[in-house]
Amino acid sequence: MQLPRIVENSPFARLARTKLGAKNVAMVLGTSIHLSGVSREQFLQDPYWVAHEMEHIRQFRQYGRLGFLARYLRDWMRHGYYNIPFEVEARTAAELNAHLYAQGKPLPSLAERHPSPKVKL
Ligand SMILES: [Zn+2]
Q1: What is the pTM of this model?
Q2: Beta strands 25-29 and 32-36: pairing type?
Q3: Which of 13, 55, 65, 71 sits most deeply, having the most CB atoms within 10 A of its CB?
Q4: How many CB atoms lie within 10 A of CB 109?
């Protein structure tokens, strides 16, 4: 499975982390995954999380950088973070596609998985 570029200690991800009040964050910008508070290795150990971010990359491709970001921010204000349609889609894609990123290992249990932030902003 071809993985995108992964940026550790990203200032953009750090900003999102502060905004979300999350311990660690992965976020997609264009075709790269930006991490804060989590190493590349830890991130790749959670195939659900990887599949979630891969869906955002697909969305970025579909709508373009500006199209994606404009919709994302608009929907964040309208619906709150958890109910942004792009996030709902990404959570669904994570369940469907995690097996693609499991690297031959058993899928992690719910307790071992990275939790989605459930904040309402
Ligand atoms: Zn997401």
Answers
A1: 0.91
A2: antiparallel
A3: 13
A4: 7
SS3 (DSSP) at 68:
helix
Cα 21 to ligand 1 centre (Å): 15
Residue 55 C-alpha to ligand 1 middle, in angstroms?
Answer: 8
φ/ψ (deg, to 5) at 26: -120, 135
Q: What pLDDT digit, counting tens, does each position of 62-107 carry?
A: 999 999 999 999 999 999 989 999 999 999 999 999 999 999 999 9
Rounded distance, CA 106 to CA 33, Å?
A: 23
DSSP code, position 34? E
Closest CA to 56 of 74, 37, 71: 71
For ligand 1, the distance from its centroid to the CA atom of residue 82, given in whole angstroms, is 9
